[in-house]
Design goal:
mainly beta, elongated, 1 helix, Immunoglobulin-like, about 50% strand, six-stranded mixed β-sheet, about 550 residues
């Protein structure tokens, strides 16, 4: 009975106090305690112990443990299974004793300890925080601090610090550089780490493929090129035989992920992709990738067997507003815009390089003209009252360009030039929906007010050159000259791309069309004469 009672007592003592760990002869050795910025690092020799425990004690000025007495065994914290530990949130100016011991099964090793007084981190100024470069480059480390400056490079196969303290790039790759201000009597060591990329002198060539091809867009995909900082998409200009840049896209997105797709407005032609890496003032490029040929979606468009004639326009239903001859050196009218003042005609010289705008009021009387400016052939033009600007485009059968010249709405003088998303022969602004309609051959595309392509219309009524386009309450009017005096205005509703019918204009080469208060106003080249005309329908037009 007594033995049973003693056994029960032992069990109770075990439950209350647990089993006390015993000390063994193994010892933690090589304990080093250092401060870097606001963090204290404790490291020690690596052993075969199962784990480690650490105790952090604040000391008073006499070197004794500060604060109330506590059970020493309760102040130990589990450190880690390896031979290091980070300690944060220690007070500046205070001395701490840090003790480390190891665990071996249920036993404890002999401990080791050290002391450290926490110093404030020092300020370090680095003027050049971009250490990227190319193989063979040297980058000076322009840094200052209270302590001496030195660098630690994670992978010295990629870069090293030379005897002058400069970083020399050895091989392409990526590593980290830690710029360190050494510890002083007053301040702790401090540092800043930087990701470093050493770029090669030559990049791999991208091999783009067509990911998606719709009626309105082209999406390319390629395998991301290592070390590229950007990609240039280029398109062959048949007139020059040279590739011209269409768009540049960064190789990395805002999320840091590689970009390997690109979407643009669909435009027939040959495209190529080139990778490039730019660091400071130096750029290296890959070879240009194999060209990709993109066909026009117009080749797939539905061809109508016959067109529907809304009305034939001739002397019986047209009024001649003005007989025009142009101005000095610019006597070929190419397009027409509608403003509050009346009808503004663009004229170009016979070389198609320079031109003027001349305004006629609604009765055909001369109002004013602008200066002679470089605006190209000006095959199409339109006026946007919201920007108070004229937009002229210069493409015809022998001139291919996406360049748009912008002229001031009051002085008709030059403002700027920019590239439209596609080669364009005609342009019209529709005030009813704040859209632009642009033409290229049989293709009509609709853009927003910033010229971003929204939709395309392909209905092959005519297979000839689109001279210009007009706009009327969500309807695009396409001016097409076939031959001789055969001209047409083909009408399409933008919302559903529906063909509404055509106006036949058998009186000459139609150059442009606008709609003024419901009346159709035409600019017509009279063919074989030096005189051209502005006509207006006697009745308002209707698509019913």
């Amino acid at each position: 009975m007594l033995s049973v009672i003693l056994a029960a007592c032992l069990v109770m003592l075990f439950l209350i106090f647990g089993v006390q760990k015993s000390r063994v002869s193994e010892r933690v050795t090589g304990l080093q305690i250092t401060q870097f910025d606001n963090i204290v690092y404790a490291t020690w020799d690596n052993t075969n112990m199962d784990g480690y425990e650490i105790r952090i004690e604040q000391l008073d000025p006499s070197g004794e443990v500060a604060g109330p007495e506590t059970d020493p065994e309760k102040s130990w914290l589990e450190a880690s299974k390896d031979n290091s530990h980070k300690i944060r949130n220690l007070k500046e100016g205070v001395t701490y004793r840090i003790t480390v011991r190891g665990t071996i099964g249920q036993d404890l090793s002999m401990d080791d300890y050290g002391e450290i007084t926490i110093k404030p981190p020092q300020e370090m100024n680095i003027s050049n925080e971009n250490f990227d470069g190319f193989k063979g480059d040297k980058i000076a480390v322009d840094a200052s601090a209270t302590g001496d400056i030195y660098c630690h490079i994670a992978d010295e196969k990629i870069a090293v610090e030379n005897e002058k303290g400069d970083i020399k790039f050895l091989e392409p790759g990526r590593t980290k550089i830690l710029v360190v201000a050494a510890e002083t009597q007053e301040f702790a060591a401090s540092g800043k780490a930087f990701d470093v990329t050493v770029y090669p002198e030559k990049l791999r060539t991208p091999s783009p493929r067509i990911k998606e091809l719709t009626d309105s867009s082209l999406t390319l995909r390629w395998k991301a090129i290592d070390f590229a900082t950007a990609y240039d998409l280029e398109k062959l200009n048949p007139a020059t035989g040279e590739y011209e840049r269409v768009k540049t896209v960064d190789a990395l997105g805002e999320d840091g992920k590689a970009i390997s797709t690109l979407e643009i407005a669909r435009d027939a032609g040959k495209y190529s992709l080139q990778a490039k890496a730019t660091v400071r003032d130096k750029t290296v490029e890959s070879k240009t990738g194999q060209a990709i040929t993109v066909s026009s979606a117009a080749e797939k468009a539905t061809a109508y067997g016959s067109s529907h004639t809304i009305e034939t326009l001739n002397s019986s239903n047209l009024t001649t507003l003005a007989t025009i001859t142009g101005g000095s050196g610019c006597n070929i009218p190419q397009s027409m815009s509608l403003t509050e003042d009346g009808y503004v005609v663009s004229y170009v010289n016979r070389s198609g390089s320079r031109g003027v705008l001349i305004c006629y009021d609604r009765n055909g009387n001369y109002v004013k003209s602008g200066p002679n400016v470089s605006m190209g052939h000006a095959n199409g033009s339109t006026y946007n009252p919201n920007t108070d600007s004229f937009y002229t485009v210069r493409t015809h059968k022998s001139i291919r360009s996406s360049l748009c010249t912008v002229l001031d709405g009051d002085s008709y003088g030059y403002k700027k030039k920019f590239n439209l998303p596609r080669t364009t022969s005609g342009i019209a602004y529709d005030v009813s929906n704040n859209k632009y309609y642009l033409s290229k051959g049989n293709e009509i595309y609709v853009t927003d007010s910033d010229f971003n392509v929204e939709k395309f219309i392909w209905k092959n009524i005519r297979y000839n050159h689109a001279q210009d386009v007009g706009a009327y309450n969500g309807v695009v009017l396409v001016c097409t000259w076939v031959s001789g005096s055969k001209s047409y205005v083909d009408c399409y509703r933008v919302s559903d791309k529906q063909y509404l019918g055509s106006f036949s204009v058998p009186i000459g080469e139609i150059e442009s069309v606008v709609v003024d208060d419901g009346y159709l106003v035409l600019l017509v080249n009279s063919m074989g004469t030096s005189r051209d005309h502005i006509y207006r329908t006697k009745e308002r037009i209707s698509f019913n």
